[in-house]
Amino acid sequence: MDDNYDLVVIGAGPAGEVAAELAAVFGRKVLIVERNTPGGVVTTTGGAPTKALREAALYLTGYRQEEVYGVRAAAPLEAVMPTLRARIEHVRDVLQEAVAHRLVVRGIAYLQGTARLDADRTVHITSPDGLAREVTAHAVLIATGSRPMHYPGIPFDDPDVYDSDTIYSLRTVPKHIVIVGGGPIGVEFATVFTALGIPATLISNSDRLLPNIDGELAGLVADEFRRRGVQVVLGAGADTVSRIDGRLTVRLSTGTVLTGDAVLFAAGRAPNTEGLGLEPAGVHLDAHGRIIVDRYYRTTAPRIYAAGDVVKPGLASNAMQQGRAAAAHACGLVFGVEIDQTASSAVYGLPEVAGVGATEEQIQAAGIPYAVGRCDLAVTPRGAIAGHGGLLKLIFRADDRKLLGVHCFGDIASEVVGLGHVVLQLGGRVELFLTLALNTPTYNYAYHDATVDGLTRLTKLMGIADSGGTGDAAQ
Questions:
Q1: How confident is the model at residue 468 (pLDDT cuts 50, 70, 90)?
Q2: Whole-number Cα distances in Å, 277 to 32, 115, 136, 139
Q3: What is the arithmetic mean of pLDDT over 155-182?
């Protein structure tokens, strides 16, 4: 193995892998250093395993079909748990092997170990067996990801207190679990435990679940949880967790005390920047301990870049875009430098909720006159066949009908928003959906009905819109 590289990538998660692949495709000599396994958190304790756990729980318990067919053809819980664990391990193995295979095929050098930066982009690498190696690079990308946040007052050394990484080692089936964190991770795990028939309490420090999702859809998520028996507590954080008479006790910031057999703390993630030698390398951090970058993901040190959760915790899709942009700039490529400014988001809850573009709250705050079109997925042919409802919501300007936001709550919402994502990216108007011969039965056909609904509302209220009224009059 050589000692000089065009690009050294520290971290083989989504950002690091995509960056390394792009550079290698264009003939650059690339090395990836990873301290754990190829694929990062997405393949070990994050994205893919969590979604695999959700899918397996819903399938094995018949959870989503009970209300449709009147029966719940579910496997016993004691039989389900080993199957869930086996399924998660299988998904991990498949994805990690796939990442490793892609690196080999593209001729990317790979070293397992920890990396530390030094001056002039020298990288010191220590393998798991203690062997040391030193390499230099024309450019370095830091893509070391993040870990669950641990706050004072939360005893993570207690065997029944978990974070989103350790929850997979759940020892026994709890009779009740308290989940702290109303963001995507908390919502997704609340879905899993509810599907398994384990009573759950979901706590959000915000006045609603999923603060970054369109408010109307976030309300639907909370309503669905409550309907399923989940206790949703809003506007409260967990101050302390302790054991009283053998049970875990969670004291909230409001003074309320909750008890449970297990606690999952899923409130925030911290960037993995310790031990990287950032200070001697000249890489600066912000007040939150995240690496400061510019629009090209350059740090404050020459030819050292950073992407993914070390910059700002987010979706794997965002990290991949950042890694690609950083590698393109580092390698002097014209292709791939720009970032999608309409990146979508998705939460794999009960059911899924996804969005792209502006939320209704953001549009209201900007004072843009707008209109909203909605479609109940239950009345689409696909929804009627599946027996599941939901909502597709289109938000568009009242003057030129330019699409501003697409939000969906329902089955495969993360895929349904893809069509709206393309139209947003191209700056299209909402009536474009009427010109498309969309397949039916599909959930995507809801775009047609939501467009008709929105244009009908806008036409009826055109007098108000023309007189300068703001968009909420056209809802």
A1: very low
A2: 17, 9, 15, 16
A3: 92
